[in-house]
Amino acid sequence: MSDAVAKSEREQEESNARIMTGNAATALAAQDAGTDVVAAYPITPQTEIVENIAEAVENDEFDAEFSRVESEHSAMAAVMGASQANARTFTATASQGLLFMSEMVWWTAASRLPVVMSIANRALGPPWNIWGSHTDALSQRDSGWMQFFAGTVQEVYDLTLLSFRIAEDQDVMLPAMMNLDGFTFAHTMQPLEKLSPEDAQAFIGDIDIPHEVTSQNPRGFGAFTAGDHFWKFRKKIMDAMENVPGVAEEAFDDFADLTGREYDLVHEYKADDADLVIVGLGTLAREAEVAADVLREKHDVKAGVVRPLLHTPFPEERFREAVGDAEKVVVLDRSTSFGRGGIVTQDVKLALDQPVASVIAGIGGQNVEWDDMVDIALDAEPGKSQWFGGDL
Questions:
Q1: Which region, left, alpha or beta, applies to residue 270 given φ > 0 means left and ψ of -120 to 50 means alpha?
Q2: Which of 162, 243, 268, 392 has the smallest set of CB atoms within 10 Å of its CB?
Q3: Domain residue spans of the chain
């Protein structure tokens, strides 16, 4: 290898700018956050996340304990136990794996432990399908976990760091799911500007579990609790959830000061003067931005896009502000609540005092492009629900 080539490679390694997949960005963020313990079980399409982490640990690039467990249920149990011992913890899963760990998902939230978990969103079976849908994460919406949805590789990295910061805040102390659409960009490469590990960890701060379990301070949780006290545990989680938007906004402000990258609870694209607003999560809403441009340029419709980065708890006040005076709201839902329609649509209906058009689209890898979204936005009727793709 020539000296010039070696120098070029060293400069690239030292640079904060790089090109990588959403999965790789997630693994890098977990590393830069100074995670102490990672436990995971592979499942498509998140496997690359834990493969990257395992490789970095094996090569002494990531100073963390990596536990190769026999199932997703065990993965969550392991990081829950480590978190109780005041460790910063991370895991990742998708689809059936998330369902398998569901019991421990609820236990982790009820134990008030700030575990961060990445979900490479994938459709739930049967029938078997390995492509994107949001129903896996949203099936756990009411478990007590915060839920963030990224739309770019840069957002994946940044929101993972922010998830640690917000989850570990003393006014929150709840776990967080950071969602990225399976295959749509979990395996798609985009530019990324990373932080140094020192800056990332200084931004997050030191972890401090107020109910840490040690040999000098043994504690127990999980004893039988009757109705006189059970409700108090649930109310404490509710109170902590209500603190999340304010804590998140403060974290976003500090992150902008550090990086120059600005985030909000709800991302707006040309929504300030929109008569028609398209609502969605993740990459579906990113594609809708192209549709909004076309609607403005070719159809003389003032269209915009409103994309919640934080879905749980749903930021109703900020969402209403983003939608503004739009006369027509069309929700693109990559999820299903049988008998009720799209899951995101239900949250939008609660937030807005107006009928909304609901369209279930893009589940299981169904291809929905910007030109499809133009037609959807023009044809969808407020107060009605429909499926993209027509009749069976």
A1: left
A2: 392
A3: 13-259, 266-387
d(CA 68, CA 55): 12
CB atoms within 10 A of CB 338: 5
List the beta bridge partners of residue 90.
Answer: 38, 116
Where do we find the tokens 């902590």? 240
> In CATH, what is the architecture of 13-259?
3-Layer(aba) Sandwich (3.40)
The number of residues making up the chain comes to 392
Give one word for 119, left, alpha or beta, with left for phi > 0 and alpha for psi -120 to 50: beta
Handedness of CA 338, 339, 345, 347 (dihedral sign): negative
pLDDT in tens, 254-304: 999 999 999 999 999 999 999 999 999 999 999 999 999 999 999 999 999
Same fold, 13-259 and 266-387: yes
CB 184 within 8 A of CB 134: no
Q: Which fold has domain 266-387?
A: Rossmann fold (3.40.50)
Q: Cα–Cα distance between 25 and 200 in angstroms, integer?
A: 14
What pTM did the predictor assign?
0.94
